[in-house]
Amino acid sequence: MASSAKKLKLSTPSTTTESKTKIDDFANQIQKRREETAESILKYKFNKKRVRIISQEQMVADGCEGIVYWMSRDSRVQDNWAFLFAQKLALKNEVPLHVCFCLIAKYLDASVRQFHFLLKGLEKVAAECKKLNISFHLLEGSGAEALPQWIIDHKIGAVVCDFNPLRVPMGWLEGAKKKFKKNVPLIQVDAHNVVPCWVASDKQEYSARTIRNKINSKLDEYLTEFPPVIKHPYTSKFEPEPIDFDEAIESREADKSVGPIEWAAPGYENALKVMKSFIDTRLKIFATKRNDPTLDALSNLSPWFHFGQISVQRVALCVQEYKKKYTESVNAYLEEAIVRRELADNFCFYCENYDSIKGASAWAQKTLDDHRKDKRTHIYTLEQLSKAETHDDLWNSAQIQMIKEGKMHGFLRMYWCKKILEWTPSPEEALKYAIYLNDHYSVDGRDPSGYVGCMWSICGIHDQGWAERAVFGKVRYMNYEGCKRKFQVPAFVARYGGKVHKYIKK
C-alpha cells in the first residue's frame, strides 16, 4: 500500500567517529596510491594528448614570476590533470603557482542553490591550496574580464585552464585568448573526462553505440592512477586578497528562494563519503535496481561531478576494483559514468545547437514538425510546471523531488521531460521549459549531461525512430502505465506528496 512507503532519502553518509575514521583511512589509502605512482608530477610521464595549446605562443617566457591555473569546471586540488600540468610548469620554471577562479554575477538560470554548492566547495579548495603553499584567488568577472590585467600585474608566464564544451565557458576562453598578452601561453587540459574529448572522437557521434569502443579501447592508456599535487616549493611574493565566501554567495544575481540542499554537502571530502557509501552499500544492486526510483541504488555523485569536486576518473578507479565481486554493476556503472557522460561532452563540443531543436537529427526535426499541430490533451504554463500543478501525481512528485533535493532520479528525469513535450504547445517551448527547470532547480544543471538528457527526451538525440504517434511522432514515448510496470509508483508518490491537480483548460 502507498501509505506504508518508507521515507527514503538520498544517502547521507553517517558522521559517527567510527565512520569518520573509515573515511580518513579511505582518503589516506587514495593519497598513498598517488604517492606510490610518483613523487610529484615532475617524476610522472604526463600524457601530452590531454593538452591543447590554445594560444600561438607555446614557451613560458624567461623571468616570469608565476604560473596560473585558471580553475573553472574542475574545482578540486587532487586528481586534477589541469592542476597537475600547471604545477609541472611552475616546478620546471621554479616559480610560484597560483589558482584563479573567475566568478560571474549571474550564470544562465542558476539559483543560489548552485552558487552555494560551488562557493562552499571553493572555500575548501582555497584552504587546501594554502596548506600546499599555492595561492588561491577569487576574481570578480569572467576570465576574459578579470584575468588579462591580473596576469600582466603579476608577471605570469603561462595560463592553464580546464576544458568545458559549453557555449558560455567557450566564449570566456575565446575572449581571454584575444585579450591575453601574446607572449603568455594559454593551455587547455581536459581534466573532466577520462579520455579527453578531442581524443575520444574528432566528430559528433551518433549514439553510445558509435562512441563506446572509441572510448573503451583507450581506457588502458587514460584510466590511470594520478600522481599527487605536492606542497609547492616556491612562494608567491604577494598574498591573495582575503575572500568572504558567504558574501560572494549573497551578492550573486540568482533566485534566493531556491536555497541550498540538505542531503549533499559540497567539497571533495563529502564526495568521498558518498562514493564510499555507494561502494559499500549500493554498488551491489546498481545493475538491477538503478532504474527504480523507490530504491537507493545510485551513486548520487552527480552534484560533485558537475562542479568537478571529485574526479570521475578517481571514482572509476575505485569502483573497478570490485569488478570480480560485482561484475554487472561495475560494468553498468562505468558505462554510465564514462561512456554516457563523455558522449554528452562530445555532443555539446561538436554540435553548436546542443540546446535547440536545430541540434536534432533530420528525422527527429521532421517528425516533430509533422506533429506540431497535433491536439494536446493538456497544456501547462511554465509556472504550473514549476509548482508541480499538473493532473499527473507521478510527474508532480518528480518535480517536487527536484525542488526539494536538487536532484531527480535518472529514470524519472526521462519521463518528466517527455511529459513536458506532451503538455506544451510546441517542441521548442517544451525544450526551453525543460532546460529552464533543470538548470534552475538541479544542483547538476547547466551541464552537458542535462542538455543531452533534455535533447534525448524531446528530440531523440542518441536514439532512433520508434512507432509513430500523436505529438511525439517517431520520438520515443513514455507513459504512466509503463512506469507502473517498472516500479511502485504509489510508493514514490507517497514519499514526495505529489497531488493530482484538476486540469482547467485555459
TrEMBL record:
GO molecular function (one): DNA binding
InterPro entries in UniProt: Crypto/Photolyase_FAD-like_sf (IPR036134), Crypto/Photolyase_N_sf (IPR036155), DNA_photolyase_2 (IPR008148), DNA_photolyase_2_CS (IPR032673), DNA_photolyase_N (IPR006050), Photolyase_Class-2 (IPR052219), Rossmann-like_a/b/a_fold (IPR014729)
Gene Ontology BP term (one): UV protection
Record field: catalytic activity: cyclobutadipyrimidine (in DNA) = 2 pyrimidine residues (in DNA)
Pfam families from the UniProt entry: DNA_photolyase (PF00875)
EC category: lyase
Keywords associated with the record: DNA damage, DNA repair, DNA-binding, FAD, Flavoprotein, Lyase
Compositionally biased tracts (Low complexity): 1-18
Region of interest called Disordered, as start-end residue ranges on this chain: 1-20
Required co-factors: FAD
Superkingdom in the source lineage: Eukaryota
Every Photolyase/cryptochrome alpha/beta domain range: 65-197
E.C. designation(s): 4.1.99.3
Cross-referenced NCBIfam families: phr2
Family: Belongs to the DNA photolyase class-2 family.
Task of the protein: Involved in repair of UV radiation-induced DNA damage. Catalyzes the light-dependent monomerization (300-600 nm) of cyclobutyl pyrimidine dimers (in cis-syn configuration), which are formed between adjacent bases on the same DNA strand upon exposure to ultraviolet radiation.
The name this protein goes by in its record: Deoxyribodipyrimidine photo-lyase
Source organism per UniProt: Pararge aegeria aegeria
Gene: jg13150
